[in-house]
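Archive maintenance. Older records in this collection stored only the sequence; we are now back-filling the structure field for every entry so that each record is complete. The fields below show one back-filled record exactly as it appears after the update. Entries are processed alphabetically, and SMP-30/gluconolactonase/LRE family protein is next in the queue.

ARCHIVE ENTRY
Title: SMP-30/gluconolactonase/LRE family protein
Organism field: Streptomyces gilvifuscus
Length field: 320
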Amino acid sequence: MDRPAALVPLKYVAVGGRGPEDVVADARGRVLTGVEDGRILRIDGLADDSPARVEVLAETGGRPLGLELLPDDALLVCDAELGLLRVDLREGIVRILADSVAGERLRFCSNVVALADGSVCFTVSSRRYPLDQWIGDIVEHTGTGRLLRLAPGSEHPEVLLEGLQFANGLALSSDESFLVVAETGARRLTRYWLSGPKAGQGEPFVENLPGMPDNIWRGAPDGPVWVSLAGPRIPPLDLLHRAAPAVRAAAARVAVRAPYRPTGTIGVLAVDDRGTVVHHLTRHRSGFRLVTSVCEAGGRLVLGSLRERGVAVCERPDPK
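Back-filled structure field:
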């Protein structure tokens, strides 16, 4: 991997709520996000010198995380408390698409993409820990993350892939032949084949990432997959992951009770469909921390965070 370039901040925009965990951009350069109190927000004017405008589109009543815009002015939402949702952005009406799989409640939906055939694929980060104890799953290294698919008209998701280490961000390849899944706890991107001779199989796509991947986003089929890095590599954590299960479980019990203090090192990557890293941007001693998402809007990079009360706007590198 090439030496990283600087992630250059331009401005910070408060959104009136805590934890804009995922950010996605629409065709007009507006950014949508969900915050801790359940509201779905749309932010306009991030590329302008004038103050940005924040509009409330809906309230889920839960905790929205990953988002996916649909062409019919609707939004798919992974809600950590309620499951997989569909939100009508014109009326603000929220409908639950799925809240369980094989009788098990969807505890921790994370990110979602829509396929051309009308089906929806989404991730579940953990079957053991809820969102407010996410650090426990990272420390224990449970491998209970899943990739699920909901067929058109169905209310019952099927399991495509399991045993994932904190399954998180999700994006489609340009030709929809495979999905890219971020495994936060393993510092890797995994490929799941949707078609071709390897259909139904998962395999490593990009390994040994310089940080922990969170949400991932692709704005156009010919554009790169942007990967947010929620934190840098932590060698003691890598060592702990090789310890016995009982040791990891004991460490997790301590971790969920200790206050989490994110580091000041943040970063983002961009990869192509061959798994080649085309951009690696990083910033040390950043005041904006725990970057959990990134998207392009108005010629800028926009960063979201599970922790902050706004989004950060940064310079976008020249295309390669």
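Update note: The first strand starts at residue 5 and ends at 6. The chain has a mean pLDDT of 95.
Entry marked complete.
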